[in-house]
Write a structure and sequence with these properties.
Blueprint: H1 20-32, H2 42-53, E1 58-62, H3 65-76, E2 83-87, H4 96-100, E3 104-108, H5 119-125, E4 130-136, H6 145-155, E5 159-162, E6 170-171, E7 174-175, E8 182-186, E9 199-203, H7 206-215, H8 239-249, H9 252-269, E10 276-278, E11 285-286, E12 291-296, H10 304-314, E13 320-321, H11 332-336, H12 363-371, E14 372-376, H13 383-404
Parallel strand pairs: 2-3, 2-4, 4-5, 5-8
Antiparallel strand pairs: 1-9, 6-7, 6-11, 8-9, 10-12, 12-14, 13-14
Helix pairs in contact: 1-8, 2-8, 3-7, 9-13, 10-13
Length: 405
């Protein structure tokens, strides 16, 4: 049971905005007797409404955020051995689809103060084999997608924006997801809106949209049945997922506004805390705060992020050091090349350079992970919760500095 003393969490009802609209939609879906997305109404409604919300021409629903990225790569139609430039600071679900499509993930370094892809690193990792770039907007803080877009356009390389953590984040007033060729989103439990699992894709390209719509349906067109024309999967969203997501979408703008207001309040209250700074933003960016990222200077705060996270946990303030324990290229999947049986495919198609994970190539990545403190965030936080989090961080830092003196 949720305790009033506990800070709301998006992992249960305390931090999620579920209510009668979701229940009513689920009831309607069940009463209709149609839970199969292609024959129902809620999946179509979600696709249309989300595309309009994200200022895109086309929206396609899928079963998960990972499925959305896989579908986007399939639409771009990469060949085995093609390289896909990406970041090592991401959920592995954004890397696995590259391998399933026979592609080679080429990891770039990140800006050590934001954790997002470094444009110069992207420029240096592009080769004649580069077929796509995945730009992840970490924590809802927009990456430098404008500069990366310029680099990609000059080489004719499509961009997939991974907006799983960045619903409604903007650069210069323009929503992320509108800078690339395809944008992907996640509706997993902890995202800005959720249906437990689920994915969404948007694009302004009609050909890419059609390919993605077919791909999630095993290359079958339910509106104009003819044939299964290419290799594809069943990544369909159910009417039950979509029924919840449609109701959630109606709350999205208000939820983002609350997240922003509270996050900016937290950062204002932490402005004078020594050794603790917010992650940086690109010019004109307005984050949507899936999480609040703080950079902790271990030369000022003894013990750094690990010690600070432990202190906060001791007073029931959720915080995580590092975000992920290791970058994606250090996981067993990549290091051991454990894919299909003992084949190691598609790593057998990779160049030595693509598989060079020398630490000196990723100084920004390791610096960011060693210094970032992640504060969970959701729209159910109140100003009192925010004040409690700010006070706990300030107090913990003061105590750590005093204890080390």
């Amino acid at each position: 049971m949720y305790s009033a003393d506990r800070i709301p969490s998006d992992q249960d009802s305390s931090g999620r905005s579920f209510g009668e609209p979701e229940t009513a939609n689920l009831r309607n879906a069940i009463k209709s007797g149609i839970l199969f997305g292609p024959k129902g109404s809620y999946v179509k409604e979600l696709e249309q409404e989300f595309a309009a919300w994200n200022e895109s021409d086309h929206g396609i629903a899928a079963s998960s955020g990972t499925a959305a990225i896989h579908t986007a790569l399939a639409a771009i139609d990469i060949d085995p051995g093609d390289e896909v430039v990406t970041t090592g600071i991401t959920d592995i679900g954004a890397v696995v689809p590259i391998l399933y499509q026979g592609g080679i993930p080429v990891f770039c370094d990140v800006d050590p103060k934001s954790g997002n892809l470094d444009a110069d690193s992207v420029r240096g990792r592009i080769t004649d084999r580069t077929r796509a770039i995945i730009v992840t907007h970490l924590f809802g803080n927009p990456a430098d997608v404008v500069e990366i877009r310029a680099i990609a356009t000059a080489r004719g390389i499509p961009i997939i924006e991974d907006c799983a953590q960045a619903f409604g984040a903007t650069i210069g007033g323009r929503k992320v997801g509108g800078f690339g060729d395809i944008a992907t989103f996640s509706l997993q439990q902890g995202k800005h809106i959720t249906s437990g699992e689920g994915g969404l894709m948007t694009t302004d390209n009609a050909d890419l949209a059609r390919h993605m719509r077919l791909y999630v349906n095993k290359a079958w067109d339910y509106d104009d049945p003819s044939d299964h024309d290419f290799l594809a999967l069943n990544y369909r969203m159910t009417e039950l997922q979509a029924a919840v997501a449609v109701a959630q979408l109606a709350q999205l703008d208000d939820n983002i506004a609350t997240r922003r207001r509270n996050a900016e309040s937290l950062l204002d209250q932490l402005a004078g805390v020594p050794g603790v700074d917010p992650v940086t933003r690109v010019e004109g960016a307005d984050p949507s705060y899936w999480r609040v990222g703080l950079l902790v200077d271990p030369t000022v705060v003894p013990g750094g992020t690990d010690a600070l996270a432990a202190k906060l946990s001791g007073v029931n303030v959720p915080a995580a050091s590092r975000y992920i324990k290791k970058p994606a290229f250090q996981t067993g999947l990549i290091q051991n090349q454990k894919t299909f049986g003992g084949s190691r495919w598609p790593f057998t198609l990779a160049t030595d350079d693509a598989l060079d994970f020398s630490p000196e190539r990723f100084t920004g990545t390791f610096q960011f992970l060693s210094r970032v403190l992640v504060i969970p965030w959701n729209e159910r936080l109140t100003s009192e919760h925010v004040g409690r989090i700010a006070d706990a961080i300030a107090t913990a830092v003061d105590e750590m500095i005093e204890e080390a003196a």
